[in-house]
């Protein structure tokens, strides 16, 4: 049985946070939607190393799901999450897990109908409307809203996010900068399986065979990166065709939602990569849950293409 305290109300968490303030303790924060895996553990590990106290939130945020998406079936297992945290960090336990209800996070109520919603919501314009924002137009509105709420409650010095959701990191950095939040956003590199597939809670939906086939996403991106860094190919159309061949050539049942090369700061779409700036390569692909299945899962991934003159660059900055 995990000894990590689980807090479910805003008032209780604020009381705990006030204790940390009174003792001049720094607080790191890892916001998650639960069903934790090694990728989340990398974020927690970084927070534990940087801060006196670490708080992890587990909240499946309804406002970042569209009505036809997988909110009801999104994997949830709080006991699993608590056990994984306790087993991964036996010497320094997490100080608290914040697992609020929807009523706590949305006191004005919540409905999927944006025209009928009441209360405060947060939009981050520009960087939210491309890539994932084109396919999921209300997604980043939900992300920005829930993170603003969580930041207001937890009041962390640092918050930790994974590079796998790279557009989210750009949106969050813009949110923090433009709303003048006194908060550092720390981006931790993507954690991958041995085959290169990015770890994700949604991987649980996939059969072992499909998990193996889905490594073509990483292979395609890596081939394109090598073409850029070694052969100096900057034409986006040529690089995109290479990725498409790698993904669809061996997996005819996979469906590409998008492949995009974007400016590392504004996320503007590129036709050609500026070798002095580099870019972010992002993609989203629908894969079968299992061969013979009609159900599909949408996987996202990305890769940083560094400036050729500064190949050590690994993460975007704002």
UniProtKB/TrEMBL annotation:
A matching Pfam family: Pantoate_ligase
Enzyme Commission number: 6.3.2.1
GO biological process, one term: pantothenate biosynthetic process
Catalyzed reactions: (R)-pantoate + beta-alanine + ATP = (R)-pantothenate + AMP + diphosphate + H(+)
Broad EC category: ligase
Taxonomy, superkingdom: Eukaryota
Annotated metabolic or biological route of this protein: Cofactor biosynthesis; (R)-pantothenate biosynthesis; (R)-pantothenate from (R)-pantoate and beta-alanine: step 1/1
Single GO term (MF): ATP binding
Alphabetical keyword list: ATP-binding, Ligase, Nucleotide-binding, Pantothenate biosynthesis
Coiled-coil zones: none
Family listed: Belongs to the pantothenate synthetase family.
Protein name as catalogued: Pantoate--beta-alanine ligase
Species of provenance: Pichia inconspicua
Lineage of the species this protein comes from: Eukaryota, Fungi, Dikarya, Ascomycota, Saccharomycotina
């Amino acid at each position: 049985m995990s000894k990590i305290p689980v807090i479910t109300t805003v008032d209780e968490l604020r009381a705990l946070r006030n204790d940390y303030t009174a003792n001049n303790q720094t607080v790191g924060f890892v916001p998650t939607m639960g069903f934790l895996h090694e990728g989340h553990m990398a974020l927690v590990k970084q927070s534990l190393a940087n801060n006196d106290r670490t708080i992890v939130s587990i909240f499946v945020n309804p406002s970042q799901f569209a009505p036809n998406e997988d909110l009801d079936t999104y994997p949830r297992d709080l006991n699993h999450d608590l056990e994984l945290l306790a087993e991964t960090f036996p010497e320094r336990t997490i100080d608290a897990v914040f697992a609020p209800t929807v009523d706590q996070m949305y006191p004005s109520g919540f409905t999927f109908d944006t025209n009928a919603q009441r209360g405060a919501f947060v939009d981050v314009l520009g960087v939210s409307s491309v890539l994932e924002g084109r396919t999921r137009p209300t997604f980043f509105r939900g992300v920005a809203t829930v993170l603003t709420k969580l930041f207001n409650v937890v009041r962390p010095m640092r918050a930790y996010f994974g590079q796998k959701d790279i557009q989210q990191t750009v949106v969050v950095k813009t949110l923090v900068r433009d709303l003048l939040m006194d908060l550092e956003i720390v981006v931790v590199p993507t954690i991958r399986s041995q085959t290169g597939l990015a770890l994700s809670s949604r991987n649980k939906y996939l059969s072992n065979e499909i998990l193996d086939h889905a490594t073509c996403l990483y292979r395609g991106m890596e081939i394109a990166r090598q073409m850029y860094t070694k052969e100096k190919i900057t034409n986006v159309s040529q690089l995109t065709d290479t990725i498409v061949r790698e993904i669809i050539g061996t997996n005819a049942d996979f469906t590409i939602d998008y492949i995009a090369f974007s400016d590392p700061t504004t996320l503007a779409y590129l036709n050609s990569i500026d070798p002095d700036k580099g870019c972010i390569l992002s993609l989203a692909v629908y894969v079968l849950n299992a061969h013979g299945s009609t159900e599909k899962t949408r996987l996202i991934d990305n890769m940083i293409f560094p400036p050729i003159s500064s190949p050590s660059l690994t993460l975007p900055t704002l």
